[in-house]
Amino acid sequence: MPTALIILAAGQGTRMNSDLPKVLHRVAGAPLLVHAMKSGAALAPDHIVVVTGHGADAVAAAARDHDPDVIVVHQDEQNGTAHAVDQARAALDGFGGDVIVLYGDTPFIRPETLEAMAAARAAHDVVILGFQAADPARYGRLILSGETLERIVEYKDATEAQRAITICNSGVVMADAATLFSLIGAVGNDNAAGEYYLTDIVGLARARGLSATAVICDEAETMGVNTRADLAGAEAAFQARARAGALEDGVTLIAPDTVFFAHDTVLGRDAVIEPNVFFGPDVTVESGATIRAFSHLEGCHVSRGAVVGPFARLRPGAELAEDVRVGNFVEIKNAILDAGAKVNHLTYIGDADIGAGANIGAGTVTCNYDGVSKHRTVIGARAFIGSDTMLVAPVTVGADAMTASGSVITSDVPAEALAVGRARQVNKDGLARRMFEMLKSAKAKQRKEY
Ligand code: UD1
Ligand code: CA
């Protein structure tokens, strides 16, 4: 069945107390909106429509950044969830499949849950996602008789008896496009909020003799973000799941609660992650690699057998081949380190290719930036870069070459050559003794004067 996804993301999120539109606040490094788009992807939608309102330009940019094919429509005034869905009507004109509606501020709906809704659609015209609420608070209540969902009553409009119901509406709705837009066309705004409620389509469907039902999911999935506290709670919930998932996948986490994952972190089986490691977006660590304590990784790939840290920083474009060593206080950016290369101490490698088995001495810096442009450093296989070498890019050091410690390398070094780029040492006999005497007598003279 072809499917279209509509994500409602027009709300301001006043209670976030922020200049940033609510759906652009991040959990595990990705905007809430992207989490919603990723969960909707479970149904392999043919069209994705994002309904923007507050902060529309920024919200549209984030949506397109995640999926360039997304259709963005604008809701000028936030007149309710049905009105919001109605903004997608023209964009989906002629579309014959099913439509699923998600909220941009509800990041954790599981793929299995959406699949269960799609399965329930085989027997029902309208399918709603509900949950058993520990504290039903101000959620809409589901009025069920057996498997049939009769209608949804918003909290504001509910009687005391209806408020006692604890099965609540998550907001997720699924129906055939023609049915959905026809029902939405019939929704009025005669209610306590004066809004066009999407939830009213259930009662309207039943009045037309259509069938409706609810799929019930875990409350944790429907967690919505309305405040900074909710956002922190969503982050904690995400991290707890990510840690449990990693352990399940055969990753060793010595202190799971101190390891932070991004929405897309991939860790191979038998990877070992020591305490206090932070994964930003787009990191893959292969099976059997070790990330030692207090390391910060983003946008990088660590291959089998590599060891990173402690206290290492891998920035976007860092590609570590098998058995590479990156040690303490080393930063790697946009650089490819071939198998077995070692960069063990106090070093910056940026915009570089490091050959297999090369050894980069302590305090080495690739001087990649001239203040205007970035330039590349290429180091051949098995080259030995002496401690405190400045490699002024663009520059190439050949295979099996060496640089002397403290060198400033400004021109290419041929394979197997030794480059010395520093002043020659001179020893002045007795000069140190005379210097000390001079300095001591100057200090003694100063003391007398005070
Ligand atoms: C909605 C449901 C309620 C459900 C709850 C779950 C309705 C009428 N009520 O209530 O049954 O229990 O969600 O969290 O649907 N939005 C727009 N444009 C609008 C209005 C809303 O884009 O004109 C977006 C918001 O940005 C938000 C989502 O739709 O992402 C839900 O709107 P909100 O006003 O928060 O609905 P609730 O009152 O929470
Ligand atoms: Ca809400």
List descriptors.
450 residues; alpha/beta; Spore Coat Polysaccharide Biosynthesis Protein SpsA, Chain A; UDP N-Acetylglucosamine Acyltransferase, domain 1; 19-stranded parallel β-sheet; 9 helices; binds uridine-diphosphate-N-acetylglucosamine; binds calcium ion
Structural class: alpha/beta
The CATH topology assignment of the largest domain is Spore Coat Polysaccharide Biosynthesis Protein SpsA, Chain A
Backbone shape: elongated
Low-confidence parts lasting 5 or more residues at pLDDT below 50? Answer: none
* CATH hierarchy, class of the largest domain: Alpha Beta
CATH structural architecture of the largest domain: Alpha-Beta Complex
Q: From the alpha-carbon coordinates, what is the Rg to the nearest angstrom?
A: 31 Å
Work out the number of β strands.
Answer: 33
Fold and architecture overview:
Helix 6 crosses helix 7. The relative contact order is 0.08. The protein contains nine helices and 33 strands. It is elongated. The chain has two domains: 220 residues, Spore Coat Polysaccharide Biosynthesis Protein SpsA, Chain A; 180 residues, Hexapeptide repeat proteins (UDP N-Acetylglucosamine Acyltransferase, domain 1), CATH 2.160.10.10. With 450 residues, it is an alpha/beta fold. The strands form five sheets. It has a 19-stranded parallel beta sheet that branches. The site of uridine-diphosphate-N-acetylglucosamine (UD1) has 28 residues, from strand 1, helix 3 and strand 10. The site of uridine-diphosphate-N-acetylglucosamine has 28 residues, from strand 1, helix 3 and strand 10.
